[in-house]
Amino acid sequence: MRRPVKRRYDKTSGFGLSAIIAFALAGGWAGPGLAQTMDSALARAYSGNPTLNAQRAFVRATDENVPQAKSGYRPRITASADIGASIIDSAVPAGASSSPFRSTTTNRLAPRGAGVQITQNIFDSGRTRNSISQSESQVLGARATLQNTEQNVLLDAATSYMNVLRDTAILNLNRNNVEVLEEQLRQTRDRFQVGEVTRTDVAQAEARLSSARSQAILAESNLKTSVARFRQNIGVEPRKLTPSRPVEGLLPKSLPLALNQALANHPAIIASLHGVDAAELQVKVTEADLYPTFSVAGVVQQRYDSTFSGDNRLSASIVGSLTIPIYEGGQVYSRTRQAKETAGQRRIEVDTQRDTVRAAVVSAWGGLEAAKAQISAAQSQVEAASTALAGVREEAKVGQRTTLDVLNAQQELVIARSTLVTAQRDRVVASYAVLSAVGKLSSRTLKLKAENYDARQHYEQVKDLWWGTQTPDGR
Question: Which ranges of the sequence are coiled-coil (predicted)?
């Protein structure tokens, strides 16, 4: 009876390190369809993630600020037309004129006309010039925010991918543990029947099996949660996920280099700096309302029946207009002060963003180093636990170990394997987190097989448009 039991135990306890990794990771989420890799999952997230697509739409909307600002240099042309009807009855009393009789006159007119007015800004104290510069800063800031959003989406996708692998592996380990404990319980009951063990040993085996079943149920619940997150971040259900490697080859060689790269190139910091530029330019735009403006307006009008039937008049004029603000109730002064305070706020936010990025780099780097150390320790733990379990089983055969000793050794091995799987997952995720923290996690850096989105293309299409309501994509 013991020989088949021993073979089953050898199946689970005799894993080498490579066998553990293959069992825990390569035996991951199974389902119909082709196998999915980390790169294919990230490429799908890059192309179809709603959060990322929404940010791209926001950048395109921000691009339109530039032609709106440039409109300040362009003429305003308006046309107007009107038509109406009027009746004028006039009476002249007798004796009021050369005629001794009262006279009455009725004029029926249809006054109408049309005109065109062209207004051209000549000088606006720098308002338009600064508005254009401000809108360009807003575009650059939006692009940097898009890059940061891309980083966050790719990091979430990579984390979701590895979470499914980890939770699938842990579920497999727990299910296998249930099978082993079921066999252990069967053997313990057989030994109880022949008087080799006590009822206590049977109860201990039953308790440990119930605990293992509970852990398997919990692992299955965790896997379902991870699958749902995978679907949310990547857009499809996981199918036959393949193991993934860390991207440490793309990382800086040391923490100081990582900090320097992050503080110089992180898109969140760049977006904040463009926010400062836009806020400072807003001060100048607001101040322009306090200074003179000069414009020229040309008007051409054609009128009919203005004073009498058949009247026909054509008029044209050109007028230069100089406007000098004197006092507007203090509103512009208040808006200028407000804009200055906002600019100060944006400068402080840059410092805050730098501190946030610095902390993220240090945290991610520490997480990566810790994961590496944990893998080394977990590997030793798995090997030692495997050896210990084999020894305890042999000793239990000759009565030197109890059933509880065997159960404890089995549990320690399951924990060691789960720890190794989790550490392997943490190392991969931490490598992506470091790449994101230094501002380099992108489709181009990872060389994903996806069409790279070029935010400059839409900007070039719309920045100098004078008319048209149709977007470049045809909407």
Answer: 171-222, 368-395
Q: What is the DSSP letter of 242?
A: P
The sign one gets for the Cα dihedral 256, 259, 264, 265 is: positive
Q: Which residues contact 323 (CB under 8 A, 6 or more apart)?
A: 292, 293, 294, 295
pTM: 0.83
Q: What is the DSSP letter of 320?
A: E
Please state, as a whole number, how many other Cβ atoms lie within 10 Å of the Cβ of residue 139.
24
d(CA 69, CA 2): 85
Question: What was the pLDDT predicted at 146?
Answer: 95
- The DSSP result for 96-149, as a single string, is SSSSSS-EEEEEEE--EEEEEEEEEEEE-TTHHHHHHHHHHHHHHHHHHHHHHH
The number of C-alpha atoms within 13 Å of 263 and in the hemisphere containing its C-beta is 13
Distances, alpha carbon 463 to alpha carbons 76, 146, 372, 436, in Å: 18, 19, 49, 31
Q: Which of 167, 156, 146, 162 is nearest to 232 (CA)?
A: 156
Q: Are the beta carbons of 285 and 68 closer than 8 angstroms?
A: no
Beta bridge partners, 86, equal: 109
180-214 exposure pattern, b = at least 16 Cβ within 10 A, e = fewer: bbebbbebbeebbeeeebeeebbebbeebbeebbe
β-pairing, 103-109 with 112-123? unpaired
Q: Name residues whose C-beta falls within 8 Å of residue 289's C-beta, 6 or more positions apart in sequence.
A: 127, 325, 328, 332, 335
Note the Cα 419 to chain centre separation in Å.
Answer: 31
Rg (CA), the chain: 39
User: Contact 86/311 with Cβ under 8 angstroms?
Assistant: no
Q: How far is CA 176 from CA 9, 180, 188, 377, 422, in A?
A: 11, 6, 18, 23, 17
What are the φ and ψ backbone dihedral angles of 112, each rounded to 5 degrees? -155, 165
Question: For residue 52, how many other CB atoms are within 10 A of its CB?
Answer: 20
Please answer whether residues 260 and 437 qualify as being in contact, where contact means their C-beta atoms are separated by less than 8 angstroms: no
Gap between the Cα atoms of 302 and 316, Å rounded: 9
Q: Which of the residue ranges 90-104, 235-249, 425-439 would you say has the lowest mean pLDDT?
A: 90-104
pLDDT score, position 30: 45
Instruction: Identify which of 57, 62, 156, 141 has the alpha carbon closest to the alpha carbon of residue 453.
Output: 57
Per residue in 435-467, pLDDT (tens digit) is 999 999 999 999 998 889 989 999 888 888 888
* Domain 2-75+125-290+330-462 homologous superfamily, CATH: Outer membrane efflux proteins (OEP) (1.20.1600.10)
Each residue of 92-146: pLDDT tens digit?
666 555 555 566 777 788 888 999 999 999 998 899 999 999 999 999 999 999 9
